[in-house]
Amino acid sequence: MAGVEEAAMQSDNDNHQPMFNLPRVILAFILLSVGIFIGRTWYLGGDGAATFILTFSFMPMRYEHLVSGAGFPGGWAAGLWSPLTYVFLSPSPSSLVFDLLWLAAFGTAVARRFGPWRFIFFSAAAAVIGAGLFWLLSSDAQPILLGPNFVVAALLGAAIRFIYAAGLGGIVTMGGDAWRQPALGIVEMWSDVRVLQLFGFIFAANTLFALLYASSGLDGRALLHNVLGYVVGILLFSLFDPRPSTAGRPG
């Protein structure tokens, strides 16, 4: 069974050399996100776009309305799908481009390693956890969670478990063949210089992001939410990884 799954994963990886060398599941995520952004911005507009956002974004206030019986776009069904659908709703063109570039870089390596279905379930689990943490970090019921930031952070955290073999160069090359490498254990990670270099790059990028978007009202809770995304990705990785860790290698 493992051999069949390995062959399917390899087939998915090998059949997608065109289109920026991205796996099909990454392309689907990008095209869906871009299509939704264009549709709601250019074709819905105004009240239609606002209703669309209220229907598919994650908002703690939605659940207060459901309990009280007050009307809210999407009704009770949106309470079930919004912890997943918010990841496809980037708030601005710049955030859309930024998030999808990071998704392409680190999501590609994880998708190659996991295969399409494991990748989808990993991303869905990260999205739901991200929604829950967002709720816990919210000081009131008003904030709205949009975009794939948390899922991208989780994918980045997952990638760190095995992309260490490619070092910082793995970021530029989308991991190369690093997805084939045995994963480091959580304890091992902190004694590997390459992993520490990757963490340094990640947090430097986050600091730059915070400075660039400070004027948009980005606060410490948003940055903490992203950092928790890395932690979630590191911890979830072992539940979905079909390949052996370094601890499990023979010899």
For this entry, give a set of tags:
single chain; 251 residues; mainly alpha; Rhomboid-like fold; 13 helices; 71% helix; globular; disordered N terminus
Number of strands: 0
CATH class: Mainly Alpha
Q: Note the overall shape.
A: globular
Number of helices: 13
N- and C-termini, Cα separation? 24 Å
Stretches where pLDDT is under 50 for at least 5 consecutive residues are 1-5, 7-11, 13-19
- Biggest sheet layout: none
CATH superfamily: Rhomboid-like
Q: Tell me the CATH topology.
A: Rhomboid-like fold
Strand content: under 5%
Mean pLDDT: 77
If classified by CATH, what would the architecture be?
Up-down Bundle
How would you spell out the order of helices and strands?
HHHHHHHHHHHHH
User: Which structural class do the helices and strands define?
Assistant: mainly alpha
Number of domains: 1
Q: What integer value in Å does the Rg equal?
A: 19 Å
Assembly state: single chain
Question: Share of helix among residues?
Answer: over 70%
Break the fold down into its secondary structure elements and pairings:
Blueprint: H1 2-14, H2 18-21, H3 24-44, H4 46-56, H5 60-68, H6 75-85, H7 93-114, H8 116-137, H9 149-163, H10 169-172, H11 186-189, H12 193-212, H13 220-240
What does this structure look like?
With 251 residues, this protein is mainly α. It has a single domain, classed as Rhomboid-like (Rhomboid-like fold). It has 13 helices and no strands. Helix 3 runs antiparallel to helix 7 (93-114) and helix 8 crosses helix 9 (149-163). The longest helix has 22 residues, at 93-114. The chain is globular, with a radius of gyration of 19 Å. It starts with a helix and ends in an 11-residue tail after the last helix. Mean pLDDT is 77; it is low at 1-5, 7-11 and 13-19.
